[in-house]
Amino acid sequence: MKKQNNIFLLILFIALFSSCNNEENNKIIEEPVDEQSKINRDPDDRKDFANVYWKKQYTLFDLITDEPIFPVNVNGTLIYKIYYSSNEDPNPYYKEFTAEQLENHLFYKFKNKENCMIFCNRKKQNENGKKPDPNITYSLKEALANDFIKISADGNGTYRNIKLNLENKSDASCKLTLPAGLYFENPDDKSQSLITAKKIDIITIDDKQKFSLDVPSFCTNVKQSVPGLLKDWNHNPNYNGGLDEVIAFYGKYEKGINKWLEKKNKEFSDENKRMLFFQTVIWYHEGAQYQEILEMLKNDVFKNDIEKAKVWLDNIQQEASQLAQLIKERDSEKIKTWLKEKTLELIPTSEQVDEAVDKGKKTLDKFRNRLKGR
Q1: What is the pLDDT of residues 361-372, one digit of tens each?
Q2: pTM (two decimals)
Q3: Edge-to-edge order in the sheet of strand 149-155
Q4: d(Cα 106, Cα 103) in Å, to the nearest integer?
């Protein structure tokens, strides 16, 4: 009997051990994928298209936040844990996919439910008839946040202006203002990105209509090539390069600077020449060297005439570099003092006035003598 009990206990022990071992083998093991080393963005710059028609050789990016979405290694298989939705059914759905399955899942894809809900809520607001109020002039930021407006830009083959493209996505007319300092990323990373130079007070775009306009711009890097004619530049609302603040600070004193420029040289009565002066200030502000600025002026402004470019730059480069330094310091009192001093330098001294009068008298005497000789 004792022997039978021992055999029974042995069988029971083996059964329990086997059960525990099977549970361990069946346990789901999830391991994160090495993320940063695997980022590979689809060269197609249509982010919504790249999201819906994602291909597994590229990194998947969240439609709303543009955050990368990486798979999780589940027992040796890469699994994407995705929230998704569509224009036709703007509700959040969750599912787990292999890369091959996800390639054929043609929906908008999101990293988490929160991002998916942002998309769904926007779609539902539009479906429920949320429209621009005709009595309100929206800032661009407000119009974008309400999904009334879409904005992009096209290159014009120069850094001095850029073509803005606006589309009213709503079912009502929309009034909006565009601030100076809008930053647009050039699709060609070897060429200059641009930042708008002027505020546009009020634009009215009818429902479902598109509107384009050329606006003055400044380039952000003198070391890069002049922009070409590529289209669909991306507007980056999170630009933090600081030139938008430089433009805003300069704008506070622009009238005084323009008056001084026009007294210094009549050519600055032309707004394009005043804009070129401020572009030079920006180049110095961003650390550009004299030779780099000269080369850019020669190529894009003075039609490869290095002598004309040099004469123009030499005439203003000292003041432009001084002004760039004052803008860096953001010192209002210093810039006011600088303007007064520069303006006073243009006012003739009493000796200069006397010399001019004497010269005038001599010229008049010569003219009289000629008349008497006749």
Answers
A1: 666 666 566 666
A2: 0.57
A3: 149-155, 161-168, 210-219, 194-196, 183-185, 234-235
A4: 7
